[in-house]
Amino acid sequence: MRFAAIIVAAGSGARIGGELAKQWRPLAGRPVIRWSFEALLAAGAEQLVVVLRPGDEPLAEAALAGLPRWSSVHGGRFRADSVRAGLEALTIGGAEAVLVHDAARPFVTAAHVTALLNALQTAEGAILALPLSDTLKRGDGERRIVDTPSRERLWRAQTPQAFRRETLVRAYASLPADVEPTDDAQVVERIGVPVALVPGDPRLNKITYEEDFAMAETLAGGARITRAGMGFDAHRWGPGASVWLCGVEIAHTQTLIGHSDADAGLHALTDALLGAIGQGDIGDHFPPSDPKWRGASSDRFLVHAAELVAAAGGRIVNVDVTLICEQPKIKPHREAMRARVAELLALPLDRVSVKATTTEMMGFTGRGEGLAAQAIATVETPA
Ligand code: MG
C-alpha cells in the first residue's frame, strides 16, 4: 500500500532538560528525528512532511541533511493543528495511507510500518499499542491513592498511527476547534470509524524525560560486552639518575634502558588496552625499528591505544597496573602515578589503580637486573 508520513516535531520538548528540544538532540551520533525518517524511508514512504515550530527550519535542515522526499510545514498551537497542517501539505496524489508519527519515538522500524499497513487492509485506521502490564492507581492532590481502576482491556497508544488518507482528512475536517485530542486515533474514533489495535513495541516509548533519553541511548547503542586485556613488560636497569614509571619521573640511582623512555608501567598498560580490543601489541603500532619513537614519551603510546579503543566504539571501564621491583620504592609516588594515568586516559581516579610488589629478592627483579610491570584493562565495546 502506498503511503505518506507526517512527523510531528512541533513540541518544544520543554519537559526535558537542556536548551535543545529532544527531537534535535543526537542519539548515538544521529539526531533523534533522523532515526524515524530513515526508518520510514526504508519502509517505502513516498512523502514525508515534518511539522515544525516556526524558526526550527535550520534545525530540520541540519538533522535531515541528505535525506530525500521530505518537506516541512509550520505547526499550530495544539497537536491537532499540527497534524491538520501536515495533511494539507501532502502533495502526492497516489498515497492511500497516511502514517502520523511523533518525532520523539526514534525506534520505529519497517516491520512496524508493515504491520500497520497490513491492518489497513481490513480497517480504516490502525495504531501501535501495548496492553497495560502495570496496576493502575488514581491519586489525589496529595499523592494518596484514591482507587485502583481495572486495567482490563486498556492499551497504551503509541505511534506511528496509520489511517486511510480520506478517512483521516474527513475526521480532522469534522473536529471541533475546542477539542484537544492527544493522538490521531481519537479524531477518527469521534466520527464513528473503528480503529484497530496492532501490537506495539516497548522501544517505541516516547522520549519525554531526561531518564528516557538515557534509556534510548542504551537502546541505540545496542548490546555491549565487556572485554579484558592484559599486558606485561620488563626493562633492564642501566646507568642514570631518574626513571619514568606510569608517566611520572622519579629520581633514582639508575634508569631503565629502552628505545623509548622505557616506562614499563605504561608499556604494559598500553598492551593491555590493545589486547582488550584485539589490536595487536605496542610493537605493531610503535616499531622499535622506527627512529621516530627513539626516546619518545610513552604517554603517546597510551593515548594512542585509548584512541583506538574509542574508535572501536569502546569505553575503558578500569585499569590496574602492578610494578614489580625492589627499588625504587613506589609507594610515595603511587598517587601521582594514578593521577597521571587517569589524566592520560580521561578516567575518574577510582577507575585507575597502580600497585607495586617486590619478588622477595628472587628472580631478575629481585636481583635488581631489571623492573617488570603487568597490567589489566577492561573495556566495554559494542557486541
Ligand atoms: Mg617496554
What would you say this structure looks like, in words?
The structure is a single chain. Helix 5 (165-173) packs across helix 6 and helix 8 (264-276) packs parallel to helix 10 (299-311). This protein has helices at 32-42, 57-63, 79-89, 110-119, 165-173, 184-190, 210-221, 264-276, 282-285, 299-311, 334-345, 363-366, and strands at 3-8, 26-27, 30-31, 47-52, 70-74, 97-102, 125-131, 138-139, 145-147, 155-164, 195-199, 224-239, 242-245, 248-251, 254-257, 315-324, 352-357, 370-382. It is built from twelve helices and 18 strands. The longest helix has 13 residues, at 264-276. It is of the alpha/beta class. The strands form five sheets. It has a seven-stranded mixed beta sheet with strand order 5-4-1-6-10-7-11, sandwiched between helices. Strands 15-12-18-16-17 form a five-stranded mixed beta sheet. It is elongated. Magnesium ion binds at residues 233, 235, 258, 264, 267.
**Terminal CA distance:** 36 Å
Bin the helical content: 25-40%
- How would the global form be characterised? elongated
pLDDT average, as an integer?
93
Number of beta strands = 18
Largest sheet: 7 strands, mixed
Alpha carbon gyration radius: 30 Å
Give the gist of this structure.
The protein has helices at residues 32-42, 57-63, 79-89, 110-119, 165-173, 184-190, 210-221, 264-276, 282-285, 299-311, 334-345, 363-366, and strands spanning 3-8, 26-27, 30-31, 47-52, 70-74, 97-102, 125-131, 138-139, 145-147, 155-164, 195-199, 224-239, 242-245, 248-251, 254-257, 315-324, 352-357, 370-382. The chain is an alpha/beta fold and 383 residues long. Helix 5 crosses helix 6 (184-190) and helix 8 (264-276) runs parallel beside helix 10 (299-311).
